[in-house]
Amino acid sequence: MSDTNEIFDLGRKTLQDVEQRLGLSRREYLQFCATLAVTMGLPKGADAAVAKAIETSKRPSVIWLHFQECTGCSESLLRAEHPTLEKLILDVISLDYHETLMAAAGHQAEAARKDAMAANKGKYVLVVEGAIPTKDNGNYCKIGGHKAIDLVKECAADAAAVIAIGSCASWGGMPSTGPNPTGASSVAEVLGKPVVTIPGCPPNPYNFLATVVHFLTFGKLPEVDKLGRPKFAYSRLIHENCERRAHFDAGRFAMEFGDAGHRQGYCLYKLGCKGPETYANCSTLGFGDAGENNWPVGCGHPCIGCTEKGVGFTKPIHQVAKLMNVTPPLQYPRIVEEQGKGATIASAAAVAALAAAAAGAAVMLTRNLGLSHAAEEAERAKEGGPTQDKAKV
Amino acid sequence: MDTRRKFLKGVLAGGAAVTTAAVAPSVSARETRARPAEALGLLYDATLCVGCKACVAACKQANENPAEYSTADQLWDTPLDTSGYTFNLIKMYRNGTMETKDAEVNGYAFMKTSCMHCGDPSCVSACPVSAMTKDPVTGVVGYNADKCIGCRYCVAACPFGIPKYQYDSPTGRIGKCELCRHRHKDGHYSACAEVCPTGATLFGRTEDLLAEAKRRIAMKPGELNRFPRGRLKSMQEKKAEAQGKVAETTPKWRAEPDQSYETPAGKYLQHVYGEKEYGGTQVLKLSGVGFQKVGMPDLPPDAAAAMSETIQHTLYGNLIMPFAVLGAMSYVAKRNVKPDEGSNDTEGS
After folding, report:
1. Residue A94: which domain range?
2. Fewest CB atoms within 10 A around its CB: which of A205, A334, A348, B133?
3. Tens of pLDDT along A52-108?
4. Is residue A129 located within the same domain as residue A243?
5. Distance, in angstroms, between A289 CA and closest chain B CA?
6. Residue A156: inside a domain, yes or no?
């Protein structure tokens, strides 16, 4: 907590600035920082570092491109409550180009992008939402007369970091579902290098916010898995932390929508829940700041595996999932429980030696006991009085 | 005179035995009994099992058994083997790095341990008081605690080591799977199959299950196939269903939604365990790892009960053995008895 105090004392002025800038009370602001720190799984006290970073860093310029998508990712971000989106895009970051949210249109908008890119060369963050069509020279998606494939390459060239938001940008998502007529591809495939991906349809806004703030705080993007997903959010299966997991373990399943089991919140595995093969933190984070259990499974619909390539938009929604991580723990009973083996000669010899020593010691002890008793007796006899023993006899 | 007398007595005793043997209906060797036609059973498919142990938990609940602990914290029901209080257990086969499921080397596999419900059960044969019985219709090997005298012959007789005695109780019983027969009247089948998420444990008529098992081992590994879950419906039921009717079954099972699902087929050994072992069991097993490796004994196609009963019934049929032994013993005794007149005289005087 000393870090927080330090910020209160030394950074009072900056904090007030931030309060003014974000329009948040100090309390709300620190809560926001703590939420992000927790989402990223940062250690205690990191909220202070996050707060400091947001206060001191110049708001990073963010260019947000939209391609083959539904704007669901932006919509999801609009529902973030701490801070609300307008606070985020105007005060925490500087959202210089976003087709849905920017007031400018037409040539003005395109000029804003060019200006931001020139002014923040090598420092801006590029966020891509939506897949990029690659078939037929990428003719299937154009913005301001430019093909998506050219736009993403142009903007990525001078970006400090590239973040692919949503499943479409991350791995192709829904547009890439077979037969994939437009050759929809992910950002990483188009750029030919790995980028940070925040898959999900839509992704949880806090996973995106946390990634951006991680970049602000530490100057680098968070640790990612082999698919470019931040490990703080995508390292566990939904199944592992699911609130309905106990029902799975006890074999209590909803068999049909609306049946007794479904109404009682039983496990949705038999309805095709993809939680057992989908890596995401939906089960722990929830959506829309509406409290606990506000996510598809919490609402009674099986997970469709939207974050997972090869699961979401590929497998039928109600097809039974393949269970990952079924390797049994060591505590499982073996086919034949291993028993202790018979004593080896060495150990038997050692035990025998110990036993002999103990026996010897015991003999000596009893002998000494006898001696001391005899000595006592002799002492008493010397004193003259009949000993109690004799009296008893 | 004496020797002739002895000889004649010996002949008489021996002759009695021989005549009884001749008169007695010829005791031929008892054949291994087959499963009843409407036998019920389970099909356990190790390649589908994910080791979630829902069946273990459900079995405990259905049979009102207490939890058993093998860890210091005593938080979870963690039995290491079946016992008087654990009738069903998922055990683990592990080898090397445990990388691949159902691989013998550097792999792991699961195996269900519970009563096989033999067609010709040794426990029933061994039970001296008919506390262990085999239902003539369903073939369920049941246990009646009220008849049991606690001799535990069944424990020793079972080749799978299934009946277990409750040694900790002064009024101990035998604990074993009875295929949830107490739930049948409510239309519920075996709890383990009812809860199994992947259909690794399937309940049904053994005949249907055997056909299902044969269908599975014929599948190409990795090929997408449809697998039933819960209870396997009989051909009759399926036919009736196709016509929009509900077939009569005994017992009358509860209506359930179709739970079958598509999944890639596992890599099966071309062997349905329980099809022929011991003359056929009602619980059948499929595995990707050798059955002996996962704790299923290599058993001959003839039940031990058939052989032991043949021997016993031949020997004891019409009391041949007692007569023969009695005769032989009397002969030996008579021959060794010294004439007592002399000694009597001396003592009496």
Report:
1. 60-202+225-233
2. A348
3. 766 666 778 889 999 999 999 988 888 877 667 777 777 778 888 988 888 888 888
4. no
5. 32
6. yes
The pLDDT value given to residue B70: 85
> pLDDT tens-digit profile of A103-153?
888 888 889 899 999 998 888 899 999 999 999 988 999 988 899 999 999
d(CA B148, CA B193): 28
Tokens of B158: 């079972």
SS3 helix, strand, coil % of chain B, rounded to 5? 35, 15, 50
Strand order in the sheet with B100-101: B89-94, B107-113, B100-101
CATH at A268: 4.10.480.10
Per-residue pLDDT, A391:
44
Interface A–B counts its CB contacts (< 8 A) at 86
Q: Which two tokens stand for residue A83?
A: 């801070």
What pLDDT was estimated at residue B316?
81
Q: What is the Cα B94 distance to its own chain's centre?
A: 26
Smallest CA–CA separation between B252 and chain A, in Å? Answer: 20
Contacting residues of A for B228, CB less than 8 Å apart = none
How much of chain A exceeds pLDDT 90, in percent? Answer: 35
B314-333 pLDDT tens trace: 888 778 888 889 999 999 99
pLDDT (tens digit, 9 = 90+) per residue, A161-171? Answer: 999 999 999 99
Instruction: Provide the pLDDT for residue A269.
Output: 93
Helices (DSSP H) in chain A: which residue ranges? 2-10, 12-22, 26-39, 46-56, 72-78, 85-87, 106-119, 148-157, 166-171, 187-191, 205-218, 231-234, 245-249, 260-263, 282-285, 345-383, 388-392
Indicate whether A368 belongs to any domain: no
Query: Distance between the two ends of chain B, CA-based, in angstroms?
Result: 28
A140: Cβ contacts below 8 Å, ≥ 6 apart: A68, A133, A148, A182
**Do B256 and A319 make contact, defined as CB atoms within 8 angstroms?**
no
Q: Tell me if A256 and B78 make a contact (CB, 8 A cut-off).
A: no
Chain B 92-111, residues with CB within 8 Å of chain A CB atoms: 92-94, 98, 101, 108, 110-111
- Cα B47 from Cα B268, distance rounded (Å): 7
Query: What is the rounded (10 degree) CA torsion for B59, B64, B68, B73?
Result: 100
- Nearest by CB to residue A333, choosing from B92, B229, B261, is B92
Q: Which two tokens stand for residue A181?
A: 């007529």
Residue B179 burial class via C-beta count within 10 angstroms: exposed 0-12, middle 13-18, buried 19 and up: buried
Please tell me the predicted confidence (pLDDT) of residue B9.
65
Confidence band, pLDDT 50/70/90 cuts, at residue A306: very high
- Give the residues of chain B that fall short of pLDDT 70: 1-28, 340-349
Task: Tell me: do A181 and A79 sit in the same domain.
Answer: yes
Number of domains comprising chain A? 2
**CATH no. of B40-301:** 3.30.70.20
A390: pLDDT confidence band, cut at 50, 70 and 90? very low
Residues A187 and A274 in one domain: no
A48 within domain boundaries: no
A133, A158: one domain: yes
Q: Does residue A4 form part of some domain?
A: no
Same domain, A101 and A130: yes
B124 touches B162 (CB < 8 A): no
Q: Tell me which residue has tokens 């005179």.
A: B1
Q: Which residue has the tokens 């792999």?
A: B107
Secondary structure (3-state) at A300: coil
CA dihedral A82, A83, A85, A89 (to 10 degrees): -150
Query: What does chain B come to in residues?
Result: 349
> Could you give the ipTM of this predicted complex?
0.74
**First-last CA distance in chain A:** 78
B256 touches chain A (CB under 8 A): yes
**Looking at CA atoms only, how far is residue A57 from chain B in angstroms?**
47
Question: Does A85 share its domain with A196?
Answer: yes
